[in-house]
Design brief:
Strand order of the largest sheet of chain A: 4-3-5
Largest interface: A-B, 62 and 62 residues
Largest sheet of chain A: 3 strands, mixed
Radius of gyration of chain A: 19 Å
Number of helices of chain A: 5
Shape of chain A: extended
Strand content of chain A: 15-25%
Structural class of chain A: alpha+beta
Oligomer: homodimer
Helix content of chain A: 25-40%
Order of helices and strands of chain A: HHHEEEEHEH
Chain lengths: 136, 136
DNA sequence: GTAATTGCAAACGGTTTGCGATCTC
DNA sequence: GAGATCGCAAACCGTTTGCAATTAC
């Protein structure tokens, strides 16, 4: 997330990493899974290379990362059911009062044969203050 | 998340931390925000105490933590829109194909005067394998 | 008095980064 | 050849933890 450049060269490492993630997509591998698997073909590869390439692939839109905690943990004493909106510019977090979506848990449980107990839903965008500002 | 005990004593530290989080709930403070604020009343308090009490308060259901990444980052080469289900027992991640919920972004934008660009939605529960097992 | 809790400081662990060497184009 | 990328190792940083001292009950 800290690097912005999109310049890209097709290195062997990047290709092997992408091939593995694509083939193993259904298992949703972690960086360590990927590292271990790719090291079988490229024994000298390092974690740094894996992370840098995963970031590059994500920036190219070829893969997606899940549960990536760019945000720090935050705490809320309002424990009733509500959701949260995160401003991507100023990091403000706002409460979103939405009609509870318990039905959706049941719907997913039925369709996928799983037992859904809870869900987490976050919205991202620009808050009202930040969306006013056109130029800085 | 690693501690399970619920035994609780009302210490001054815990009370001050809870009071602050409750009063500052709308700002959704981070652990560091809380640490800095609480230190004004309790100059000798440590980060360890803050984190331990936030965990205790969460286990008592008095506060809620957001964006807490218990999961490692995971990668997915299926970049079309879909959601994910996480088994809380075996950590398996499954794809959830759900009709796109773009309308919900518009709805939130309208109600809250913000510009929602995206949302993240995760489901948690027991996968079909783990929900079969009654006893181990 | 006993056990939970604290303050301190060190450890943890996933991720990032600086650097000289290497590879892509 | 220029500069993106690699391998290596150290740094980063939010969070956790071991331990002796303190505190709540």
């Amino acid at each position: 997330m800290s690097q912005l450049r999109l310049i890209t060269r097709t290195t062997n490492q990047r290709q092997v990493i992408y091939d593995y993630v694509q083939g193993a997509s259904l298992s949703h591998p972690t960086a360590e899974h990927i590292f271990r698997a790719v090291r079988k073909k490229l024994p000298r590869i390092s974690f740094g290379t894996v992370y840098r390439n995963l970031l590059a692939l994500e920036q190219q839109g070829l893969i997606v990362s899940l549960f990536y905690a760019k945000e720090h943990a935050r705490y809320d004493a309002l424990v009733d059911n509500h959701y949260h909106f995160v401003c991507e510019k100023c990091d403000k977090v706002e409460n979103i009062s939405l009609e509870e979506m318990q039905e959706i848990n049941k719907q997913i449980s039925r369709r996928h044969g799983v037992q859904v107990h809870s869900h987490r839903l976050y919205f991202y965008g620009l808050c009202s203050d930040c969306s006013k500002i056109k130029k800085v």
